[in-house]
């Protein structure tokens, strides 16, 4: 029964709807993601150089609502920290597992269609993030409340749909964001180092508690330092493998382009893009690698100060680009360069295939690199998804607290109850078999996309696109 529901939720209709929505926004923007690539790159990744020198990302000013900036309070983060937190949620084990599965399912041409799908998804990510910043508000505790649930209530005036989205998001955080990620960590630690799942679960739960107890400030602080280093190491070693067989690069590029028009490559590419997201646990799991369309990026960017809907939307575009076009492409090139005998003659799939290819060139270092990357990516996803879940819990409590005095009086205790549930999910994920939880989590993720897409359709006129200065 669960398998059938999963097939319906993540069937062709869902993929077509998400891609169609991205195409519509691309057309409305004049294909901003392509024509203005230099501008949005300078505004996002390129701005990091200047931010480091001038500290402009931490200055004072006004937020998107015209209020005095409070970037230094414990409930706010800088634009860069918000972006790193979003990257922590989107760059996951699926960048290692999902890409390998897409290539074995659709051949080398799958990577081409992953690029196409990512280009389209960039504008969906832009739209939901800019709407999130536009409609966000501060609650009684001075905490930013942001996400699809907010623009569903305030933009579409459909609070019941916002509550429905919140329920799906909370369920996803307990499954996809915690249990499945911690299960990946436990399996990796057991396979690589022989660590007992029980011990891994206890240590991991404590580490997660230490980070998330500090709220969004500490989560963003850890993400800001964890993601650039871990992603940078993965990129460097990937380039080492790729350029060590530089003579194969033209052949691999030719294979990608030649097989891109094959029907099986198209299906594999769309699947690989859709799945290489977090848990990111492979094509059959059916979740989008960069979460464009799920609405989660709108929540993750909600605490950013000194920003505008347009600017934070461009940061979301950058994350989609970085997650899929850079990280996923590097994984694909490593696999294609190292499988000289062809994918059909390699008897590996998923993480095993990626590990095999790195190990083939780097030896034991390659095996530890893949294992280490999966550990760091999964841990980063766990702490980022806690913030996602807590934001939606805060919204639900704020919304219901207006009508029920009991909820208003016990709001802090109910938030602590969610914290305990999340830590329990992290621990249980390490010691349990999660086949059913995987499929249920994918279902919750897919259902998150439905109300979000409704909002993106009916609030389309509310989304404005940036104009490059001097143009």
UniProtKB/TrEMBL annotation:
<keyword id="KW-0472">Membrane</keyword>
<keyword id="KW-1133">Transmembrane helix</keyword>
<comment type="similarity">
    <text>Belongs to the alanine or glycine:cation symporter (AGCS) (TC 2.A.25) family.</text>
</comment>
<keyword id="KW-0769">Symport</keyword>
<feature type="transmembrane region" description="Helical">
    <location>
        <begin position="226"/>
        <end position="244"/>
    </location>
</feature>
<feature type="transmembrane region" description="Helical">
    <location>
        <begin position="368"/>
        <end position="388"/>
    </location>
</feature>
<feature type="transmembrane region" description="Helical">
    <location>
        <begin position="191"/>
        <end position="214"/>
    </location>
</feature>
<feature type="transmembrane region" description="Helical">
    <location>
        <begin position="110"/>
        <end position="127"/>
    </location>
</feature>
<feature type="region of interest" description="Disordered">
    <location>
        <begin position="52"/>
        <end position="74"/>
    </location>
</feature>
<keyword id="KW-1003">Cell membrane</keyword>
<dbReference type="Pfam" id="PF01235">
    <property type="entry name" value="Na_Ala_symp"/>
</dbReference>
<dbReference type="GO" id="GO:0005283">
    <property type="term" value="F:amino acid:sodium symporter activity"/>
</dbReference>
<keyword id="KW-0812">Transmembrane</keyword>
<dbReference type="InterPro" id="IPR001463">
    <property type="entry name" value="Na/Ala_symport"/>
</dbReference>
<dbReference type="GO" id="GO:0005886">
    <property type="term" value="C:plasma membrane"/>
</dbReference>
<feature type="compositionally biased region" description="Low complexity">
    <location>
        <begin position="52"/>
        <end position="69"/>
    </location>
</feature>
<protein>
    <recommendedName>
        <fullName>Amino acid carrier protein</fullName>
    </recommendedName>
</protein>
<keyword id="KW-0813">Transport</keyword>
<feature type="transmembrane region" description="Helical">
    <location>
        <begin position="6"/>
        <end position="27"/>
    </location>
</feature>
<feature type="transmembrane region" description="Helical">
    <location>
        <begin position="443"/>
        <end position="461"/>
    </location>
</feature>
<feature type="transmembrane region" description="Helical">
    <location>
        <begin position="160"/>
        <end position="179"/>
    </location>
</feature>
<feature type="transmembrane region" description="Helical">
    <location>
        <begin position="320"/>
        <end position="343"/>
    </location>
</feature>
<feature type="transmembrane region" description="Helical">
    <location>
        <begin position="80"/>
        <end position="104"/>
    </location>
</feature>
């Amino acid at each position: 029964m669960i398998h059938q529901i999963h097939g319906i939720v993540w069937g062709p209709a869902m993929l077509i709807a998400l891609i169609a929505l991205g195409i519509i926004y691309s057309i409305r923007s004049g294909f901003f993601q392509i024509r203005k690539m230099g501008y949005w790159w300078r505004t996002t990744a390129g701005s990091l150089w200047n931010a480091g020198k001038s500290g402009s990302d931490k200055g004072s000013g006004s937020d998107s609502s015209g209020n005095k900036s409070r970037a230094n309070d414990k409930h706010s983060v800088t634009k860069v920290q918000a972006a790193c937190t979003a990257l922590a949620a989107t760059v996951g084990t699926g960048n290692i597992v999902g890409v390998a599965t897409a290539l074995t399912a659709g051949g080398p041409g799958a990577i081409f269609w992953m690029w196409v799908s990512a280009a389209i998804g960039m504008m969906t990510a832009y739209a939901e993030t800019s709407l999130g910043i536009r409609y966000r508000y501060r609650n009684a505790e001075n905490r930013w409340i942001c996400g699809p649930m907010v623009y569903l209530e305030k933009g579409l005036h459909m609070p019941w749909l916002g509550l429905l989205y919140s329920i799906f998001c909370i369920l996803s955080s307990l499954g996809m964001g915690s249990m499945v990620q911690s299960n990946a960590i436990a399996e990796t630690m057991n396979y690589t180092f022989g660590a007992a799942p029980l011990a891994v679960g206890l240590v991991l739960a404590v580490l997660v508690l230490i980070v998330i107890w500090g709220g969004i400030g500490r989560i963003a602080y850890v993400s800001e330092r964890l993601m650039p280093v871990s992603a940078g190491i993965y990129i460097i070693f990937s380039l080492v493998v790729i350029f060590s067989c530089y003579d194969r690069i033209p052949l691999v590029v030719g294979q990608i382009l030649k097989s891109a028009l094959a029907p099986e490559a198209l299906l594999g590419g769309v699947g690989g893009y859709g799945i290489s997201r977090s848990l990111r646990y492979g094509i059959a799991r059916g979740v989008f690698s960069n979460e464009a369309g799920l609405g989660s990026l709108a929540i993750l960017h909600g605490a950013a100060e000194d920003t505008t809907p347009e600017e934070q939307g461009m940061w979301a575009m950058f994350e989609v680009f970085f997650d899929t076009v850079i990280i996923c492409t590097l994984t694909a090139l490593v696999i294609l360069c190292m499988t000289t005998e062809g994918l059909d003659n390699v008897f590996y799939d998923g993480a095993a295939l990626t590990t095999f290819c790195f190990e083939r060139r780097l030896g034991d270092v390659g095996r530890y690199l893949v294992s280490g990357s999966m550990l760091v990516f999964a841990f980063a996803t766990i702490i980022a998804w806690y913030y996602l879940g807590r934001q939606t819990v805060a919204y639900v409590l704020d919304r219901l607290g207006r009508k029920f005095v009991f909820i208003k009086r016990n709001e802090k205790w109910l938030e602590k109850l969610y914290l305990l549930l999340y830590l329990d999910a992290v621990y249980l994920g390490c010691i349990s078999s999660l086949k059913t939880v995987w499929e249920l989590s994918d279902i919750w993720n897919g259902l998150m996309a439905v109300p979000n897409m409704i909002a993106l359709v009916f609030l389309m006129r509310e989304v404005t696109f940036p104009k490059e200065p001097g143009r």
